[in-house]
Specification:
Layout: H1 7-17, H2 34-44, E1 51-55, H3 62-75, E2 83-87, H4 98-108, E3 116-121, H5 129-139, E4 143-149, H6 156-162, E5 167-171, H7 177-183, H8 205-215, H9 218-228, H10 232-235, H11 240-262, H12 269-281, H13 289-296, H14 300-312, E6 316-319, E7 321-322, E8 335-338, H15 341-348, H16 358-376, E9 383-388, E10 395-402, E11 405-411, H17 424-432, E12 436-441, E13 448-450, E14 458-463, H18 464-478
Parallel strand pairs: 1-4, 1-5, 2-3, 3-4, 7-9, 11-12, 12-14
Antiparallel strand pairs: 6-8, 9-10, 10-11, 13-14
Helix pairs in contact: 1-4, 9-15, 11-15, 13-14, 16-18
């Protein structure tokens, strides 16, 4: 124990973090993220000899999931003192190792030889946490461990070295549109709770019209979702300016100015901020690193390094190009998207006026569709990419590919989206022959199945708000 730290101070912090030890009320939201059920299933599986890592961006509800887990276990009759929650970015706790904190907990609160649940928030701030967790998983089976980290899989290289076979990761992205509707308690009436997007290929025209009527009230909510984003705190706020300020301060600035310095040792924060603004201005576009470096007056190596850090910090998605026939693309140039379109709106101070700007809305909706596809298909570990024909420059926005399926998605968020055999989607489907493909549209009237001449693929034209809602609903079914 460090001599200048009073033992009673640390124990006081532990009691403050764990009010259920003394049966004090804990004011936490009733709404549960989809990740809650996944984490509970893993923790309840006593045959699973692994720690569970809940990983995602800041302000998406990771801490709330841990607190909800603690209260659920107490309500199930588990000894309240056997449940230890720690926020490891607390100034006092950062002065101690995880082993020292646990030693104090067992001396003052709960015996060391009995089963305990460790809920470790912001684990990346604990010194040598990878080694400590490895040793606990291997040699102290009395612990069940659920940890959170804002940095993506919290230093993947370190986790790969020390944590093979010791961790199972549960992603917690920003709210899906389905969750956004749930948290606002504006669920449409008469919806089949088990309906999935691919079920729509079997629907007749009348069934699709009926579904569109049921989901019509969601369209203005979808516009709201695009503006304020998938963060629980902003979902219930009506003031868009306040929402955007919260996103800038709590998500963007805290990650760029605190996490990047503390976790990754970034020294030149100004260059990182300039790159992030560049990505906001060019979200969804192909990024040429040399051109980007020239625009930002820095080196290509710096741009490449900072892009990797922004991806690890759960601020951006990287989309590689895909070749036809499974061929790799030489001189691959990636596309970059923000993990939530509302971050772009917040940084660039875009308000409701963007709803009438088709080009900007196309980028925002494409970003939102990509977020839903990443979350839904995560457990299949697919390759998610884009495709572009070098001769014609025609492209397909998003391709989700695994050994079991190939699913192309083209986003045409405009009044009269065109679809023909010579479009990027048509060319790709004629060559690769996927069984299904999606054209993501704006209006209800552009909702239905179609087939192009000479193309075997069945196409579904589907409004973006319906697609995102049903993907979110399907994601809930996966974790049950």
């Amino acid at each position: 124990m460090k001599p200048f730290i009073d033992r009673s101070e640390i124990i006081g912090v532990l009691h403050g973090f764990n009010p259920w030890w003394s049966a004090k009320p804990v004011p936490i939201p009733l709404f549960r993220r989809l990740a809650f059920e996944a984490c509970r299933n893993y923790l309840n599986n006593l045959q699973l000899k692994r720690a569970v890592l809940l990983s995602g961006p800041r302000r998406v509800g990771k801490t709330t999931v841990l607190q909800q887990m603690a209260l659920a276990m107490v309500n199930e009759g588990i000894d309240a003192k056997s449940i230890l929650y720690l926020s490891l970015d607390h100034p006092l706790l950062k002065l101690l190792s995880l082993r020292e904190i646990l030693s104090l907990y067992h001396e003052a609160v709960y015996p060391a030889d009995r089963p305990a649940v460790l809920l470790l928030d912001e684990i990346q701030y604990a010194a040598q946490w990878e080694t400590e967790i490895k040793l606990m998983v291997d040699h102290q089976p009395q612990y069940r461990i659920l940890a959170t980290g804002s940095a993506s899989v919290v230093h993947r290289e370190k986790l790969a070295e020390s944590g093979v076979g010791r961790w199972i990761t549960v992603p917690i992205p920003t709210l899906s549109f389905f969750e956004f509707v749930q948290i606002r308690q504006e669920v449409p009436a008469g919806m089949a709770p088990n309906l999935r997007v691919n079920d729509l290929f079997r629907f007749g025209a009348g069934d699709l019209i009926s579904l569109a009527e049921k989901l019509r009230p969601l369209q203005p909510l979808f516009h709201r979702y695009l503006l304020v984003g998938g963060f629980p705190e902003t979902a219930l706020q009506e003031n868009i300016d306040l929402c955007q300020r919260l996103l800038r301060e709590d998500v963007v600035e805290r990650v760029l100015k605190r996490d990047m310095t503390a976790l990754f040792g970034v020294r030149n924060i100004n260059e990182l901020e300039k790159l992030f603004i560049y990505l906001c201005l060019n979200s969804g576009g192909i990024l040429a690193q040399r051109a980007c470096a020239q625009a930002l007056e820095t080196t290509t190596a710096t741009v490449a390094n900072h892009l990797a850090l922004l991806e690890q910090a759960n601020l951006i998605y990287r989309l590689p190009p895909s070749g036809l026939g499974g061929k790799k693309v030489l001189k691959a140039r990636h596309k970059y998207y923000l993990v939530d379109a509302a971050l772009r709106n917040a940084v660039l101070l875009r308000g409701e006026e963007i709803l009438s700007r088709p080009e900007e809305m196309g980028t925002i909706v494409e970003t939102t569709v990509l977020r839903h596809l990443y979350a839904y298909y995560y457990r299949d570990t697919p390759e998610i990419s884009y495709w572009r024909d070098t001769a014609t420059q025609k492209e397909v926005d998003i391709i989700v590919k695994s050994p079991a399926y190939v699913l192309p998605f083209e986003v045409k968020y405009k009044e009269s989206p065109s679809l023909d055999a010579d479009s990027g989607l048509g060319i790709y489907c004629r060559s690769e022959k996927p069984s299904q493909a999606y054209l993501v549209t704006k209006r209800e009237v552009d909702f239905g199945t179609a087939q192009l001449a000479g193309v075997p693929t069945r196409l579904l034209k589907i409004p973006a708000f319906i697609l995102c809602y049903l993907i979110g609903q399907s994601e809930r079914l996966l974790w049950k």
